[in-house]
Amino acid sequence: MPIKLFNPTTPSRRFVTQFDFTELTKKRPEKSLIEGKRSTGGRNNNGRITSRFRGGGHARKYRFIDFNRDKREIVGKVAALEYDPNRSARIALINYKDGEKRYMLAANGMKTGDTVIASETADIQVGNALPLRKIPAGTTIHNVEIRPGDGGRLVRSAGTMAQLVGFEGGYAQLRMPSGELRIVNHDCWATIGQVGNLEHENIVIGKAGRMRWLGFRPHNRGVSMNPVDHPLGGGEGKSSGGRHPVTPWGKKTKGKKTRNSKRTNRFIIKRRK
Predict the structure, then answer these.
(1) Domains of the chain
(2) Which stretches of 40-108 are assigned E, i.e. beta strand?
(3) Number of Cα atoms under 13 Å in the Cβ half of residue 249
């Protein structure tokens, strides 16, 4: 997908890049597949801020995406490729033969008029969904389930893909986009191909205002605060903190391992580092 460059009419405009959206074939979302999406401002159900520096941004509608691919043995046709403000990937509107419409993640190379199906006997082609045990080793996949029937949880961002390495003891071995090698139950379903919108990583935001459109508020450093607000705050003039970098609540931010799910350690064969 081509990326638009701009003449440097202002300092912020100099480095801005954005998509030209020529691959999209429909501007308005399907009304039956959307609902309103309220902005939380980073607050939980008690009104307390749990994610700092969030708020504002453009209004969005949520698109219902079929991550489960549970409409089995029915052929669907790609009716349109659309933009989704809630994710980095593009989405495809699928018209099934029985008249139902659904959204799914648009895979790289998918275009209007293509047919897709979720079936154990489906061909190994882009957009089709199969259980891992029916997919040949070496195939690139995305939208992978962690537990059978739970819906796709892994590999859903723009341009990502996992590679099916092999099978052993009822599990499939997957090489994740991070380089991690992990095992997943071979009865889990996955979609063939790579997630589309590969150029997403090359987009340059370019100016602070564009981050505000996305719902991010200015992020100020701890050393610029007062001691009452942050452990790194205070000091006469500029300082580099004077102590190990920590969060506002005193937890170390460099080198401390944050993974705490020992229950799933057995599914990881090789770490990403």
Answers:
(1) 3-201 (2.40.50.140)
(2) 60-63, 76-82, 91-96, 101-105
(3) 3
Q: What is the pLDDT of residues 8-25, one digit of tens each?
A: 999 989 999 999 999 999
- Is residue 255 scored above 90 in pLDDT? no
Please give the Cα distance from 142 to 178 (Å, whole number): 13
Distance CA 143, CA 161 (A): 9
Please give the backbone phi and psi of residue 201, each rounded to the nearest 5 degrees, phi first: -70, -15
Q: How confident is the model at residue 1 (pLDDT cuts 50, 70, 90)?
A: low
Task: For residue 187, count other CB atoms closer than 10 A to its CB.
Answer: 15
Q: How many residues does the chain have?
A: 273
Report in angstroms the alpha-carbon separations of 40 from 32, 51, 153.
Answer: 24, 10, 23
